[in-house]
Amino acid sequence: MKPEQEVVTIDEEKAKKEKVKAVFGWIGYVASLVVLAYLIFYFVFNLVSPNLTARYMGFKGYVILTESMAPELVPNDFVFITAYDFDDLKEGDIVAFVDPNNNVVVHYFAEWTVNERGDACFRTRPADPEKPMDYWRITKDKFVGIYSGRIPKVGGFLRVVGSPIGLIAIVVIGVSIYLIVHIFKKPTKEKQEEIAQAGVSKENIIEAEAEVVKEEPKPEEEKRESKE
Question: Can you name the CATH fold of 51-153?
Answer without folding.
Answer: Umud Fragment, subunit A (2.10.109)
